[in-house]
């Protein structure tokens, strides 16, 4: 499968997931975020093993020392990612909240309601912690 097909498949699957995620309750989202944090910590050794493979491939591909450093996952990285997910779980759920209300000249009240966008695509350099941060924020806001 080439990169275009891979992205197309990922987008299609994300669109299906977005329909489910957008209907999750705050409690469901918070439980998933907390479970993700727990799993990061529980699976740390496996993550380190897989990261070593990534680092070997990166070195073989000639990536710079700076890029390899960004790609490296440490105990501190895992702890930071898990703490970040727990922090996001503690945030108030933005979905369904109302912004500023204005009253139009005809008496109609107009307000902005925060709703999920659906699918969010993010392009960034090799930083595993960004993947977790983005996933956590997307989930909390009801997006895939």
Name the descriptors.
two-stranded antiparallel ribbon, Aldehyde Dehydrogenase, Chain A, domain 1, 144 residues, mainly alpha
Give the topology string: H per helix, E per strand.
HHHHHEEH
Residue stretches low in confidence (pLDDT < 50, at least 5 long) are none
Gross geometry: elongated
**Percent range for β-strand residues:** 5-15%
Kindly give the count of domains.
1
Separation of the first and last Cα atoms:
23 Å
For the largest beta-sheet, the strand count, sense and barrel status come to: 2 strands, antiparallel
| Rg (CA only) | 19 Å
Secondary-structure class: mainly alpha
Per the CATH scheme, the topology name is Aldehyde Dehydrogenase, Chain A, domain 1
Number of helical runs? 6
CATH architecture: 3-Layer(aba) Sandwich
Protein architecture, described:
With 144 residues, the protein is mostly helical. It has a single domain, classed as Aldehyde Dehydrogenase, Chain A, domain 1. 62% of the residues lie in helices and 8% in strands. A two-stranded antiparallel ribbon has the order 1-2. The longest helix has 19 residues. The radius of gyration is 19 Å and the shape is elongated. The mean pLDDT is 95.
